[in-house]
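Aim 2, interim progress: modelling of the 3-hydroxybutanoyl-coenzyme A-bound target.
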Amino acid sequence: QREAIGSDFDALIAADQRIEPRDAMPDTYRETLIRQIAQHAHSEIIGMQPEGNWITRAPSLRRKAILIAKVQDEAGHGLYLYSAAETLGVDRQELLDRLHDGKQKYSSIFNYPTLTWADCGAIGWLVDGAAIMNQVPLCRCSYGPYARAMIRVCKEESFHQRQGFEILWTLMRGTEAQQAMAQDAADRWWWPALAMFGPPDTGEAAKGGHTEQSMAWGIKRFSNDDLRQKFVDMMVPQAEKLGIVLPDPHLRWNEERGHYDFGEIDWDEFWQVLRGDGPCNAERIEHRRRAHDEGAWVREAANAYAAKQTIRENE
Ligand code: 3HC
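Predicted structure of the complex, ligand included:
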């Protein structure tokens, strides 16, 4: 079918076919994808910091090995995503500059601190759980390179979620202090995880949002509120299995809707974090800039090596 249609953008979108880098596309489609993929890539590499904070203090060699592998996976996800963005004609260095200058966003969730070991469990269970819910539909995104990158990312995210669940499972079967630590981490991460899905679909916050257009283009397959609801419905039974009480007195099954009802998200806090005023925004960007500067010699060495290879190939 793809071949029969050729590279007519509207016809490809209408037939739910993939758009590939060489196809003609409206500038606004390209810009939307660059914005979203870059924000996603930035989230992956900034997302290495909260858990990276626990690598030296993981409670056993096994936990440390798993955590190192997980944080490394996040770096890998960032690399696939920057590569996917580059197929749209933007340079990775330019995207990193925009992140470092605060001109492009990364996910709100990574501006919260990891105070105890249980936070690594809560991040795996809740944050990676939310990431999977949001990213599985992106495997069907209309832009080919982004959709293909998401397949492997989602497989790895699903392993991450299970390891987070397993950390909390172990703590919930430990001492009273360990149980309290797991509950406290879930209390702190639950609401920020719900906010991760982005502003609501209706009301003031929805104005100026991208959902409608992105859904028409097949970039987003579900709205923010629909994914948030699916996430709540998935997590409540898991919390019950763990023995964790989710911190929401309004959480209850609604027979009529066939979904869980839940309480109001603090959107003022969300916008505050997006403006740069979250608990860890300054620290995260400062750390990222430093890591980038300290890695300059690696980039220079890689460029020098590539230049040498090119000369050799041309000899
Ligand atoms: N954090 C920061 N900004 C957010 C946000 C969040 N959680 N949710 C929404 N926003 C921003 C949007 O970027 C947009 O800002 P802009 O107009 O200045 O670019 C504004 O709020 C309005 O939101 P919309 O819903 O209209 O924006 P989108 O259509 O782009 O939808 C999204 C937001 C659902 C996050 C979508 O961009 C998306 O699906 N992105 C891909 C997934 C992603 O980036 N995930 C981040 C977490 S990655 C992760 O957790 C992996 C872990 O292993 C490290």
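The beta strands are 252-254, 259-261. The radius of gyration is 21 Å.
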